[in-house]
Amino acid sequence: MAGPGACGYVNSPPVTLHLRPSAPIAPDVLLPGDPGRAMALAQLLMVQPKMSNHNRGLWGYSGETPEGLALTIQSTGMGGPSAAIVLTELAELGVRRAIRVGTCAGISPELELGSLLRVEGAVGDDGTSRALGGGERVTPDAGLMAQLAEAGPESVAATVASTDLFYEPDGEGDARRRLASWTERGAEAVEMEAAALFTLGPRVGVAVGCLLVVTDVFAEGERVRIEEDPLAAAAERMGVVAAAALSLR
Fold first, then answer.
1. Which residues contact 202 (CB under 8 A, 6 or more apart)?
2. Sign of the alpha-carbon dihedral angle for 31, 33, 39, 40
3. Residue 226: which residues within 8 A CB-CB, separation 6 or more?
4. Which regions of the chain are under pLDDT 50?
5. CA angle, 100 as apex, 15 and 115 as ends, to 5°?
6. 3-state SS of 135-146?
7. Which stretch of DSSP H or E encloses residue 30?
8. Model confidence over 167-189: pLDDT tens digits?
9. Contact, 108 vs 188, CB < 8 A?
């Protein structure tokens, strides 16, 4: 089996079950959940990106930034189980640093739509991080956290809660109780993948960080959603900061 070179695998990569690379996988990767966001960030951040995966609809792209950083942008799908599958297989393909670039709902009244959060901890309210042995609170790689702060000083350090549920089937009362529980445990926003990735990363030899855009806030108990154009602009800022963080050594 070939080992990873400077920009990916020199010869044939390992055979993975869900990712089927058709281009070299870089040691550094950005992990958006949304395949469409993966494509948009690849077009923004890389010179002549090549699609490296389309299997199972998990679009991935590889190439180099204008500064010469070998980079892969690989979508994970939604939720901890899918993200854990993708990170495990990327580790087998030679990835050594990964930054989740995604979205979250702000539950702190101080957060605003479009804000960038660099995640300093995740409350594990999801099944995947618990199944992997994660505790009540899991943390990112300290080096990547510091590099995200340096690359994006406008970002806000925050703790998030990671959950398996996007929709609350039991109604508004249950949602309020869940929000209150997350707040009591120190969470300022909620998303679905960070705890799983933070827990899994050290087990598979990948340093993991996380940068998020606030796309929803709760104003007087009502959920307010960001509009599409501001979301696209914020996602571009997020991608630029994350790629810049990976370029720091």
1. none
2. negative
3. 113, 114, 213, 214, 215, 216, 234
4. 1-11
5. 160
6. CCEECCCHHHHH
7. strand 28-31
8. 877 766 677 888 899 999 999 99
9. yes
Q: How many CB atoms lie within 10 A of CB 30?
A: 29
Strand, helix or coil for residue 56: helix
The residue type found at 186 is G
Question: How far, in Å, CA of 124 to CA of 109, rounded?
Answer: 22
Read off the tokens for 176: 């309020």
Res 112: pLDDT: 95
Catalytic residues: 216
pLDDT at 177: 86
Token digits for 119?
Answer: 């995640």
Give me the pLDDT at residue 223, please: 85
Q: What is the pLDDT of residues 70-80, one digit of tens each?
A: 999 999 999 99
* Pair 1, 93: CB distance under 8 Å: no
The first and second tokens of residue 89, run together, are: 């297989």
φ, ψ dihedrals at 176, nearest 5°: -65, -40
Asked if 137 and 121 touch (Cβ cutoff 8 Å), the reply is: yes
Q: Is 77 exposed, middle or buried (0-12, 13-18, 19+ CB in 10 A)?
A: middle
Q: Identify the CA nearest to 234 among candidates 135, 111, 94, 122.
A: 111
Which CATH superfamily groups domain 4-247? Nucleoside phosphorylase domain (3.40.50.1580)
Q: What is the pLDDT of residue 172?
A: 67
pTM above 0.85, yes or no: yes
Report the distance separating Cα 98 and Cα 107, nearest Å: 26
At residue 190, the 3 state secondary structure works out as: strand
209 phi, psi to nearest 5 deg: -125, 175
pLDDT for residue 160: 98
